[in-house]
# Entry
Amino acid sequence: MPQDSLTLDEYMPYRLAVASNAVSTLIATAYESLYGLKIPEWRLIFILREDGPSTQQALVKRGGMDKVTISRAAQSLAKRRLITRAPHEHDGRSHHLILTHEGERLYADVAPAAAEYEKIMLADFSPEEVTQFKKLLRRVEDAALKAQNGVEG
# Structure
């Protein structure tokens, strides 16, 4: 095999995608069975809890999901009365999504489970390794976003 050839199992984007899929599957299975939430829905709940009322455009940027995914998740959560919509004060074509009291209660149930899953997944890491791992993930994300925008550096 030529020295400059690519080995899939050593290719960072592949490893990252496989790891992400494994984590997402674990979380999705648990949240779907325990709370009836799909991944985009629980992300939306967590973002709204952390950031407060947000437009769909802001949620697309914050959540790393496309507009259609955000829209479907919002519709599902609204049907369950976990979020509500409020008019946007400056843009009549837009609205804010807001976590309801029921959404807050669901968040209070889900958050400890989320923390426990993270603890399980990082159990073999030292605290320093966890900190470094999270920093490195942010750097990879930032580098990918820069590359998408055609910015070098």
About this structure: Residues 8-115+126-148 form a domain with the Arc Repressor Mutant, subunit A fold (CATH 1.10.10.10).
